[in-house]
From TrEMBL:
This is Carboxyl transferase. InterPro entries: AccD/PCCB, AcCoA_carboxyl_beta, ClpP/crotonase-like_dom_sf, COA_CT_C, COA_CT_N. Signal peptide: none annotated. Gene3D superfamilies: 2-enoyl-CoA Hydratase, Chain A, domain 1 (3.90.226.10). Keywords: Transferase. It holds the Pfam family Carboxyl_trans. It comes from Candidatus Galacturonatibacter soehngenii.
Amino acid sequence: MSGTAQNSAMLRIQSLLDENSFVEIGGMITARATDFNLQQKKTPADGVITGYGVIDGNLVYIYSQDASVLNGSIGEMHAKKIVRIYEMAMKMGAPVIGLIDCAGLRLQEATDALNGFGEIYLKQSLASGVIPQITAIMGNCGGGVAIMPTLTDFTFMEESKAKLFVNSPNSLEGNIQDKFNTSSAKFQSEESGIVDFIGSESEIFEQIRQLIKVLPASNKDTLQYEECTDDLNRVCQELENCIGDTSILISNIADDNVFIEVKSNIDKSMITGFIRLNGVTIGCLANRTQVFALDGTIDKEFDSVLSPSGCEKAAKFVNFCDAFNIPILSFTNVTGYDASIASEKSIAKAVAKLTYSFANANVPKVNVIIGKAFGSAYITMNSKAIGADIVYAWPSAEIGMMDAKLAAKIMYADENVIVMNEKASEYRELQSSALSAAKRGYVDSIIEAKDTRKYVIGAFEMLFTKKEDRPNKKHGTV
């Protein structure tokens, strides 16, 4: 054993894993370096506890950095222990969880420590898309260490003590940490979008446990299923009232109303997260125009448009689901693109990424059009044109080039208001109604909002054995 049974690094592991399930690996390892009198300092477990255990019966590999040993800095043997855990996890097909509390590179070991950084980066890169990778930042995570959580799939951050930064806030010209704390959990979750969840340590551990329960163990795992006790034909009354805040809509149709949202603090106009339908894990994403507070009042409102950060968020999520064979369910309510000078710099590139992600994904894909679906923004949101297997629409949905009134105004610019209104009504019926889209085959069925749950469950059951090849290539370049 490492002799660190009661330190914070070990206590965190014990708090996260099932009771008495942790088995330590490499507990006797210490630093090999002797430069700068390092041999005179004790380095139990070389500052990182590594091993394996279970969460709700699911095997996971874990490392937890010990800030009491040289501030948790990464040296040669410290890095080798983390690399070893990754190698074992990839062989066994199980997630890796990293609990980070690290001062950075161990200066006494110089190039040996620097090479260790590189070896960790390599293993993380090779593991991407093979096994789920989760990091939780419990203390410091600065400099090159900040790359480690960014290379993983999901990142958690303690809301008060943790710090995540490449450059310290005080090193940024004209800034001090007290003025604008770029290392805070708030900034890294709301502005950079690196962090998926923030909270206290106990809240983070509970969130990780919930996430592990719904994620597959690896990209080869086809057994991620639990018995469904919810009514498969449950009617979701008044679901049409959830068009604005689609997080409520998704929760309503989910088994037992459980929705695990990821990256909830970055660009709330796009929602991403996981639910179960008939016991099967499903990745959900949706446009959102309203956020309701706990008291039922509207807290925030957004235009029904795609934004650069929203597209980036959704594209990363779709890529993760496709890599791990998780079916995708989307809810579309979009009229165009965010129009601002700031957005114009990156909107085309971000939309292209999301379009490519949907088109490239060959998992089962179902789309439900719940509101407006206009122009090329609608095409990007998992339309049949870019590969959706099944598309449903609610009766009130509008699908087409643009709003009927605007179309009539353009086509009949010289006519009076009465004529424009007549033509708008005609355009709506012939070109932008759910029925007109269904007649052309762009919508498979028009369904009542309250029946959405049973229809999407049926669709995914039908698509369970889907196999769809893509052109032979090394990888795309978008």
